[in-house]
Amino acid sequence: MGRGRQKAKATKQARDIKYYSPTTDYAALERELGSQASHSSHRYADDSEPDYSEYEDKYGDQFADEDEDEDSRRIG
Fold it and tell me: Where is region (Disordered) located (predicted)?
């Protein structure tokens, strides 16, 4: 196939893809979105954040703070 015919075929295929519009099943879309909304409302019913205070300083002594390491930084 010559370059002109090849380009015309590619252009036709691109145009077909660009303007392709399948029929949309809005009822199925509504059912899908409705089911997701009902599941997410049960999952996040409790908006309070869990209490992490018992873990706050559990590992605090193992690592040095960043403020203490300022003198060991190389300048320049």
Answer: 33-76
